[in-house]
Amino acid sequence: MTLCALIVDDHGVLADGLAMALQAEGLPARVHVPTSAGGVMTAVAEQQPQLVLLDLDLGLERGGGVDLVGPLRALGPRVLVLTGSTDRLVHARCLEAGAAGVASKAEPFDRLLDAIRRATRGESPMGRRRQEELLEELRRARAARSERLAPFERLTPKEASVLLALAEGRSAEAIAKASFVSLPTVRTQIRGILVKLGVGSQLAAVAMAIERGWLDEVRARSAAEAGS
Fold it and tell me: Which one of 88, 90, 175, 200 has the minimum C-beta count within 10 Å?
């Protein structure tokens, strides 16, 4: 018998309830409790469901959520994301990655089940207009981010490293010592940072890095690379 839906969720009560409700309607469904992103991919490849109901927050150390949508779609099934998150940009990223829709876990059970029924029939579970609105919000957010971070894109890797060190409270002397370069070299790099950012002091450069979100992005990227 062809599996209609595979519910990938680490919250048993909702997942079990959805599986029972679908089975009662003659739609074969199973629950897969994820332990790894690779395990999710293997389960979908082996069971070949028509639809994957994917919890956005799987509680995995690596992978999951938005990052799984594209690879799952490549295996063939439609993907409907289930989430308690209200972050519209995250919802839009799921749609961009190929999800058929995003359904809120906060919705009444009947409405959630109806969205799943529509997805199994190949229909849009959330409406074309809402999908287009979310994707347009994502495009605007990315354009705003690009404009906000444009000055920092002009920094060389060395200058970016120096700016990060300044933001961490390190002096030019400490940076030079840690980088095994001369103090004049570091001071030249700092002058380059100030010119490219259009500011007059190291303090203003750090403040700009914080205000425009550059510092948070650099730290998040470093953390992700360290965990990979």
Answer: 200
Q: Show pLDDT as tens, one digit a residue, over the chain (228 residues).
A: 578 999 998 877 889 999 999 999 999 999 999 888 899 999 999 999 999 999 988 766 665 678 899 999 999 999 999 998 899 999 999 999 999 999 998 889 999 999 999 999 889 898 889 999 999 999 999 999 999 999 999 999 999 999 999 999 999 999 999 999 999 999 999 999 999 999 999 999 999 999 999 999 999 888 777 665
Contact present, 192 and 200 (Cβ < 8 Å): no
Q: Would you list the domain boundaries of the chain?
A: 5-136, 154-227
Task: Using alpha carbons, select from 99, 91, 103 the residue that is nearest to residue 138.
Answer: 91
Across-strand partners of 32? Answer: 8
Task: Measure the CA–CA gap between 120 and 127, rounded to whole angstroms.
Answer: 15
> Model pTM?
0.82
Q: Topology of 5-136 in CATH?
A: Rossmann fold (3.40.50)
Q: Which residues contact 182 (CB under 8 A, 6 or more apart)?
A: 176
What's the CATH class of domain 154-227?
mainly alpha
β-bridge pairing 29-32 and 51-55: unpaired
Q: What are phi and psi of 86, to 5 degrees?
A: -105, 10
The region, left, alpha or beta by phi > 0 then psi within -120 to 50, assigned to residue 82 is: beta
